[in-house]
Write a structure and sequence with these properties.
five-stranded antiparallel β-sheet; alpha+beta; three-stranded antiparallel β-sheet; disordered C terminus; 8 strands; globular; 14 helices; 371 residues
């Protein structure tokens, strides 16, 4: 997902990707989404709000103008529900009335006209939620107590994080992880109310087949084919279902062939022992690659992850582990075990944090400011 595209294009592309995932994995949640809004409906909403609606929000509502929820829960990242347009207008009106009643002359605003709500705690619970700041592009949270905390840098960034968490759930940092409840998407972690009915989603797909979504197909393609895939994907007319379906059929077939070839090569290299995992019993040729001091019981991935003391470092470890294939496990294990041991030393821990922070700051510097 490129970050230099206009915000509305990023929202359109990533929401279409999320819709594909919902249709494949959680049909009840997909069915709970309302149809996209027409231009007349968007114009009526804008007139009711009395301010211009940001283009990225219009792009989202053109594809899905809210949801009805499943069992009282919403499907958006963080267990939020996508608000129908009538609820958007009602919450905005109510908050503007609160602005007149509660705002102080020299204090912070209770509500600004360009703060547009789009998510709430549930389809019928609009006491708290998320709104888009039309001037800064930030996604912020409101509560009935006047809290207005920033949650995400932009609407596109929020949706992209949701898409990544759905397609690669093991890389999701923090407690917000996708799960299933009666076939619907419900974000975790598991709580006492849901009990054992809430099942974590681990990205399962049919064996040897990637999920039939743009992100999963691209990930399964050989690297030398991804540029062509990106070029054709970017030229797609996402409003034409037949064109999109033909594109998915073509590239999914190519991705399946590539994945089967890769798995055959891995199985051949491991002599059929594809399930070898560090922490268990490695095949002799791979155990021989480990230093003698840890050959009796190589540290497992769980041992290493538990030793990493910062969530940002754990997220990078999770990404590396997810991308690795069995022949790479010994080298991956040793590299991260060294990092974990380094972080056990206060001096080493500070050094690791500086490296991670430096990468984070460099990544932020490369990203443009929100529209």
């Amino acid at each position: 997902m490129t970050t230099d595209a206009p915000a509305e294009e990023r929202v359109t592309r990533v929401w279409a990707q999320i819709l594909e995932w919902l249709a494949d994995y959680t049909p009840p949640s997909y069915a709970a989404l309302r149809p996209g809004a027409s231009e007349d409906e968007l114009a009526e909403l804008q007139a009711a709000l009395g301010v211009n609606v940001p283009e990225e929000l219009k792009a989202l509502w053109r594809l899905s103008a809210g949801e009805d929820g499943v069992n009282g829960s919403g499907l958006m990242l963080g267990d939020w529900a996508l608000m129908p347009l009538d609820a958007v207008a009602e919450v905005h009106r109510r908050q503007m009335e609160g602005e007149k009643e509660f705002s102080e002359a020299d204090g912070p605003a209770f509500w600004e006209p360009w703060w547009i709500p789009f998510c709430s705690r549930g389809p019928d619970d609009t006491v708290v939620g998320l709104f888009l700041d039309g001037r800064t592009g930030e996604v912020r949270r409101w509560t009935g107590y006047g809290d207005r905390e920033r949650e995400y840098r932009s609407l596109a960034g929020y949706l992209e994080l949701m898409a990544v968490s759905l397609e690669a759930p093991l890389t999701a940092a923090g407690p917000e992880k996708p799960g299933m409840l009666d076939g619907a998407l419900v974000w975790g972690p598991r709580d006492d109310e849901r009990g054992d009915q809430w099942l974590p989603h681990l990205g399962e797909a049919a064996p040897r087949h990637p999920a039939k979504t743009l992100g999963a197909i691209r990930e399964a393609l050989p690297r030398d084919e991804r540029d062509e895939f990106d070029r054709r994907r970017d030229a797609l007319d996402l409003t034409d279902p037949e064109t999109v379906a033909a594109f998915l059929d073509l590239w999914w077939g190519r991705a399946v062939q590539a994945q089967e070839k890769l798995e055959d090569e891995v199985a051949s290299a491991l002599r059929g022992n594809v399930l070898a995992q560090p922490g268990g019993r490695l095949a002799p040729e791979y155990e021989a690659a480990l230093p003698p001091a840890i050959r009796p019981r190589p540290p497992s991935f769980w041992d290493i992850r538990a030793a990493l003391r910062h969530e940002s470092v754990r997220a990078r470890f999770d990404q590396d582990k997810l991308k690795a294939i069995p022949p790479h496990f010994p080298a991956l294990l040793l590299r991260w075990w060294d990092i974990a041991r380094l972080m056990a030393d206060p001096c080493g821990d500070r050094a690791v944090r500086e490296v991670v922070s430096g990468r984070h700051e460099a990544r932020k510097a490369r990203q443009p400011r929100p529209s």
